[in-house]
Amino acid sequence: MQDNSALIHFLCATGIISATIAAEIAQAFRPMDFAKDAFVLREGQLSDTYLFLEQGWMRGFALAPSGDEVTTGIFRPGQVVFEASSFFQRQPSMENIQALTPCQAWGISFAQLNHLFHALPEFREFGRSRLVMGFASLKARMLSMVTQTAEQRYLSLLQHHPEIFQNVPLKQIASYLGVTDSSLSRIRRELMNH
Amino acid sequence: MQDNSALIHFLCATGIISATIAAEIAQAFRPMDFAKDAFVLREGQLSDTYLFLEQGWMRGFALAPSGDEVTTGIFRPGQVVFEASSFFQRQPSMENIQALTPCQAWGISFAQLNHLFHALPEFREFGRSRLVMGFASLKARMLSMVTQTAEQRYLSLLQHHPEIFQNVPLKQIASYLGVTDSSLSRIRRELMNH
DNA sequence: AGCAATACTTGTCATTTGGCAAGTGCATCA
DNA sequence: TGATGCACTTGCCAAATGACAAGTATTGCT
Hints:
The structure is a homodimer.
Chain A: H1 5-12, H2 19-26, E1 30-34, E2 39-41, E3 49-55, E4 58-63, E5 69-75, E6 80-81, H3 84-89, E7 96-99, E8 103-109, H4 110-119, H5 121-147, H6 150-160, H7 164-167, H8 170-177, H9 181-192
Helix pairs in contact in A: 1-2, 4-5, 8-9
Chain B binds a DNA duplex through residues 149-150, 169-171, 179-186, 188-189.
């Protein structure tokens, strides 16, 4: 049996779930490892696994009509990785999820998750809370796309999540910020010259 | 007692709630009218009312650092109007909501809604379903902002929701599409000349 | 009817951005 | 070690966009 204390800690973090229940829930997750560059989810597939990322980095991306890959999410250790639209609505995903580094994670299927939601009201409340948090952060990201310049979004990302820049290629960060890699490079150059 | 059949129909539409329960739930909503230009929610306030819009049009908007109003949502009859981040996380809203036309709506407070969620599992499931739908459409909108041109977003809006153009000023639609009103005007001119 | 406010368009110009191609530096691998 | 690939930057140019100001409808109001 692997050490699932990080998962238990994650479940307890909101304060909604007690340590005892968290341990019980954690037992339903199974360890899943991914090699660098492995796909966790491919466009067209159903996102059927709720994944807690314990170690490593992942990215979500979609294909633009032009064929370019557009980063839709960057996932660091301690975060949940799945495609919510596909997972909850039981529809094929329009996005891909790929490991950027070797990853250790804990996964649970949609069916098992629902079973636990049904059996454990605290966990259901936890799930609702996570969903709301995801919604809120997506709203914040959306807002930043229309109210801020790419430079401001870059600086904000640099300030709040500097580790991203040690783990994700700038090209992928650029499309996450809504610009091309050359534009991001220009933004960085300008910031160097104060 | 006003006719709340549209509200009941809305509650039944997902198939999760029976007509009987829907009628019971609908009784907890109270009718709320808004004059044209009235504010339903102001930045800094708590979004504490879950509002079903029966008649009329509303818009959500945020203030960019520049002072410009940026449209974050356009609401037509039959939709739910509230600021999810503020409502669920009990934090001051960063957005405003304003009636674009005279509006008839049905509202219920956060507390009452939670009370019903607790008492009626079907309604709780309905709420989760609505939340997921809202999440999914926000993701789709987010994706369109990075994968599509403003012209494509304009055409898509025109095709799927042509009524918007009869009810919302182009200037507000423009910022919803992520461009200025003059750029939108240019896009429209180009499309006229095939 | 006449005035004012608003909605929308248009022109001009400066700035930003993207596309493309080339160049540099670094790491990996046989 | 030499070759290959990748990450990142840079220069050049064309295209898109924004800021600003002015002009034209259109609407609403008294």
